[in-house]
Design a protein that fits this description.
2 domains, elongated, binds magnesium ion, binds adenosine-5'-triphosphate, Rossmann fold, five-stranded antiparallel β-sheet, 14 strands, about 35% helix, 11 helices
Length: about 325
Amino acid sequence: MTVATPSVELAIETRGLTKRFGHQTAVDGIDLSVPRGAVFGFLGPNGSGKTTSIRMLLGLATASSGDIAVLGQEMPGRLRDVLPRVGALVEGPAFYPFLSGAANLRRLDTADPGASSATRSARVHLALERVGLTHAAGKKVRAYSLGMKQRLGIANALLVPRELLVLDEPTNGLDPQGTREVRSLVRSLAAEGTTVFVSSHLLAEVEQMCTHAAVMSAGSLVAQGTLDELRRVGEAHVRVRTPDGADARRVLAGLGIVAGDPVTDELLSAPLPEGAAAPETIVAALVAAGVRVRGFAVVGASLEERFVALTGEGFDVVQ
Ligand SMILES: Nc1ncnc2c1ncn2[C@@H]1O[C@H](COP(=O)(O)OP(=O)(O)OP(=O)(O)O)[C@@H](O)[C@H]1O
Ligand SMILES: [Mg+2]
């Protein structure tokens, strides 16, 4: 199957995208839909296939099977048309350690056939300013910290205006201040209309920066959507096991909690609205009304719990 009519609304679209390394399937038939204008978080633990997917999106690696459209064009077939419209940071470009940051950017800019030489210095200056490296523009890259190199890589992706930015773990190796700067940079680029596809293994980071997310686990895409949609799936539910379903339903309704159809004869489940009564208050109200509570639980209380359930492992929630 091909992405027969690539959607103009989608910046990135994949169908059944797969990458095998020998017997290992690193990326297993993923269907990504990245809307234009989104800040799209590509979230997953180490080794879940993020970088491998990104390399295929950019034509840096060949897919074993499946189809890709980037900015409405088939990849890698239309690579030459697509790549000038895409800025990318994947495992950092190779910088010359004996050149300054500014000189490295000028060199990389020269290699871009679409970049005008007349405005080169101004663009290099602006890109360095946007990533907070103005003070280190003349310093040799040999003397850059990992975080500074990471920022220089982002500056490189920003040399000319892009419709799509693909950033593979852009906050890796950054200190907390640098991390905040990169996050706010991503948000401001998005505000200017650039679609940003950014990978991360940090749930909190994706929550702060992104409008949409996809969750990878062991090569598979296990969830995708807007953050609100993903949160809703993970919304806290209260579960009550009781033979007195009708009474329980009435007591819950009195607390603003509306139960759906019984899950089984004895089991009621209801989403907990924001600001709902505390679990102990709910149980007390049920018992006071004579409901025989045989079981009670609050489940799926946070996006984090949801993602842990999806991926089978914890995320680093703070950096
Ligand atoms: N060139 C390669 N040859 C063989 N196996 C590879 C190659 N590149 C990646 N892999 C394997 O594919 C799997 C996915 O790796 P990938 O780098 O895409 O994960 P990731 O999600 O980017 O992880 P991280 O968070 O550590 O960057 C891993 O098991 C990795 O060992
Ligand atoms: Mg990676």
